[in-house]
Amino acid sequence: MFIVFEGIDGSGKTTQSKLLAEKLNAFWTYEPSDSEIGRFIREILSGNVKVDNKTLALLFAADRVEHTKLIKEELKKRAVVCDRYLYSSIAYQSVAGVDENFIKSINRYALEPDIVFLLVVDIETALKRVKTKDIFEKKDFLEKVQNKYLELAEEYNFIVIDTTKKSVKVVHEEILNYLKSLKIM
Ligand code: TMP
Question: How far is the CA of 74 from the centre of ligand 1 (A)?
Answer without folding.
Answer: 22
